[in-house]
Amino acid sequence: MPLQRRIDHALAATPPGRCVWVALSGGLDSSLLLTLTAAACRRHPRPLRALHVHHGLQPAADGFERHCRRLCSRLGVPLFVEGVAVDRAAGQGLEGAAREARYAAFARRVTPGESLWLAQHRDDQAETFLLAALRGSGVRGLAGMAACREWRERRLERPLLGVARSTLEAEAGCRGLAWVADPSNDDQSLDRNFLRHGVLPLLASRWPHAGDALSRSAALAGEADALLAELADLDLERLGGDPARLPVAGLETLSGPRRRLLVRHCCARLGLARPPARRLETLLAQLGAGGDAEVRVAWPGAEARVWRGRLHLLAPAESLPAGWQAEWDGHSPLVIPLGEVRVALGRADGAPARLRMVPRQGGERLRLPGRGRRDLKRLLQELGVPPWVRERLLVARAGDTPVAVLDPVEEAWLALAEGWISRSAPAGSPRPAGSPPPAPGR
Ligand SMILES: Nc1ncnc2c1ncn2[C@@H]1O[C@H](COP(=O)(O)OP(=O)(O)OP(=O)(O)O)[C@@H](O)[C@H]1O
């Protein structure tokens, strides 16, 4: 299909009125994508904007921005430039850190409900497939980049994913299009560049359709991955349907591969990082060992615990700074170092409250309505509160007296002393403290 028609189709499939953003690096692919999309917008009018992220990592970066400005002004497309600070010390390599900063900038600019178009093409997909194979990935990694998917309530699309780089180069040549070359794309110490310049041309010299074949394999792996997700959903349904609390006995009825699949799938459903293969093996071996041994296996971005026969998948616990406590009147927003907690608390008789919020220390006793003074530890056991939740509890004290117990992550009062009531919370930020950040994906 001719390139322009491909983009026209993609735009026609975008609901009228929905804003389309083109992520414009200034390279050949995204400069061409913007040019084609601007032309398509004349036939299928949609609000169109370009977004350039200035990473500030190399002297050439100002030149990228200048090119983007020139191109957008020629096409009459509004350009937004986002400067980012790349955290080189984040332990994921410079490329990974730049990518994370770029996606954070995309999320800042592009509003939920809008579409973001990226210019990756078929040869990028072939490289991604090979990189995944060289890491020993399963079908999910081999599937590479999705042509279209939901991302943080936005629509992420790659309308050029089925198009060969050579086709894009030819089209840009015919149009006399200008673009900027990123010198870091020639650095063959980077794996992707080594594949691009060294390996793929060699493969293509023997198998001219190598790029096409590899990207077809990626698409087939994507289909297999979708089928596995359906299988995992069926298993999850059979085991009660709660991805955060899987029954260990039910898990043990599954074959090893299905058990691994289900745990990974549940992590994804919960927005948690999937466990690396070896961590997952450790976890499942501990489950298989049986008994009440306290199982706790953590990996970056998530952890798993077993309690009362269930495997709990959790965001990693965030702890409060040592010695932290806060004065609170019970109705103003309660802000703790983990975020804002949307709860309110008051005296039943309406008298003003002067409270101090402190982490639970142990040994607290509460006077419960109709039950007298009760030991908090026993009370939490009776309520079936898991140990890791007990560790994060805050106690509201009036003077020295504990009057309420708060789970700041669930934003819920677990116990209230006689004379105290939970009130409706002040309006505030929608993020519950401790909720995991959405993971960037493919
Ligand atoms: N600095 C940036 N600002 C905005 N979008 C970007 C930026 N860098 C990359 N992108 C988007 O992500 C896609 C993939 O990035 P990648 O680094 O593989 O491409 P590139 O070689 O820099 O640029 P191009 O794809 O335009 O030739 C780009 O096509 C573009 O849509």
Automatic annotation (TrEMBL):
Enzyme Commission identifier(s): 6.3.4.19
Keyword entries, A-Z: ATP-binding, Cytoplasm, Ligase, Nucleotide-binding, tRNA processing
Compartment list: Cytoplasm
Name this polypeptide is given: tRNA(Ile)-lysidine synthase
Biased composition (Low complexity): 423-432
Record-linked HAMAP family: tRNA_Ile_lys_synt
Positions of region (Disordered): 423-442
Predominant location: cytoplasm
Major enzyme class: ligase
An example Gene Ontology molecular-function term: ATP binding
Similarity field: Belongs to the tRNA(Ile)-lysidine synthase family.
GO biological process: tRNA modification
Cellular-component GO terms for this entry: cytoplasm
Compositional bias per record (Pro residues), positions renumbered to this chain: 433-442
Role of this protein: Ligates lysine onto the cytidine present at position 34 of the AUA codon-specific tRNA(Ile) that contains the anticodon CAU, in an ATP-dependent manner. Cytidine is converted to lysidine, thus changing the amino acid specificity of the tRNA from methionine to isoleucine.
Domain notes: The N-terminal region contains the highly conserved SGGXDS motif, predicted to be a P-loop motif involved in ATP binding.
Organism: Halomonas ventosae
